[in-house]
Design goal:
159 residues, mainly alpha, 2 domains, three-stranded antiparallel β-sheet, elongated
């Protein structure tokens, strides 16, 4: 039985990220409900041995753990044991710096939005400030194009 084999493990919890749904599944390998499963069986999501976290919940959990220092002394094994793509562990100083950088990023995005809006306003303004001569030339060119097109249609219809 799978449950009995899992209880002999040193590590109680296993976390896996589902790329499709952007969720994290955390399996309590020592949970009693796993005793009835065989090695080939899939553990359903509604099993009491599984906790599901959304991507946002997981990120906020890691940030809070880093902020209070829980992750500072965490040991995930040697570099060879740590799978590629694990999250970065940061101490409180690094966490503070990351939060400051996040605030700065929000300010930059806000400034970009403000500048883009101003740019749109200026473009509209420039269209309105064209000289009368420019508008007359534009209307004349449009009229010439229409007359030429009508002449071409007339010539083609006679043929």
């Amino acid at each position: 039985m799978m449950g009995n084999m899992l209880r002999e493990r040193d590590q109680q919890y296993i976390a896996n990220r589902d790329e499709d749904t952007k969720t994290w599944r955390i399996l309590d390998t020592w949970h009693e409900s796993l005793t009835g499963y065989d090695v080939d069986d899939d553990v359903p999501d509604d099993s009491p041995a599984i906790k599901i976290l959304t991507e946002g919940e997981f990120i906020v959990l890691i940030r809070e753990a880093a902020r209070i220092g829980v992750l500072e002394n965490a040991h995930l094994g040697t570099d060879e044991e740590t799978p590629e793509g694990d999250f970065l562990l940061v101490n409180e100083e690094q966490s503070t710096k990351l939060l400051e950088m996040d605030k700065e990023l929000v300010q930059y995005k806000s400034e970009i939005n403000r500048l883009e809006a101003r740019n749109r306003e200026l473009e509209l303004d420039m269209r309105d400030k064209r000289s009368d001569g420019y508008r007359l030339k534009e209307m004349a060119m449009t009229s010439i194009l229409k007359l030429t097109a009508m002449s071409d249609v007339e010539t083609l219809s006679k043929d």
